[in-house]
Specification:
This protein is mainly α. The protein folds into two domains: 58 residues, Orthogonal Bundle (Helicase, Ruva Protein, domain 3), CATH 1.10.8; 27 residues, no CATH class. The chain is 45% helix and 3% strand. The protein contains six helices and two strands, in the order ββαααααα. Strands 1-2 form a two-stranded antiparallel ribbon. A hairpin with a 2-residue loop joins strand 1 and strand 2. The longest helix has 18 residues. It is elongated, with a radius of gyration of 22 Å. The termini are far apart.
Length: 121
């Protein structure tokens, strides 16, 4: 199994798709990596030789991927929360951050409904 950026990429898939299993690499970036390294995107991972894998590793080293990228994103959110800006407070309260309405239609972010009983008369 080919190991790139600390991730075992699936052997049976095309290289173009297999690279997307690495956090931080989508289809567009995978295509750019393959073009830059000169590896054919249509071959399967199991058919790659060691030279191709080395080329892919060398090109992916240029990007922030996996743990470093997760840490970077976490630090950005923590910074927003620490400075107390609106976005940081919304993240802390698990509410929509980008101005969406919350009276209705915020179920994904707010979680399941918590039913409140009506007042007895």
């Amino acid at each position: 199994m080919a190991r790139i950026s600390g991730i075992d990429i699936p052997r049976e898939k095309r290289v173009e798709v297999a690279l997307t299993y690495i956090y931080g690499i989508g289809l567009t970036r995978a295509q750019a990596i393959l073009e830059k390294s000169g590896v054919n995107p249509d071959i399967r991972v199991k058919d790659l030789d060691d030279g191709d894998i080395q080329k892919l590793r060398a090109v992916t080293e240029e990007f922030t991927l996996e743990g470093d990228l997760r840490r970077q994103e976490g630090m950005a959110l923590k910074r927003l929360q620490d400075i107390g800006c609106v976005r940081g407070r919304r993240h802390r309260m698990s509410l929509p951050v980008r101005g969406q309405r919350t009276r209705t239609n915020a179920r994904t972010r707010r979680g399941a409904r918590k039913t409140v009983a009506g007042r007895k008369k």
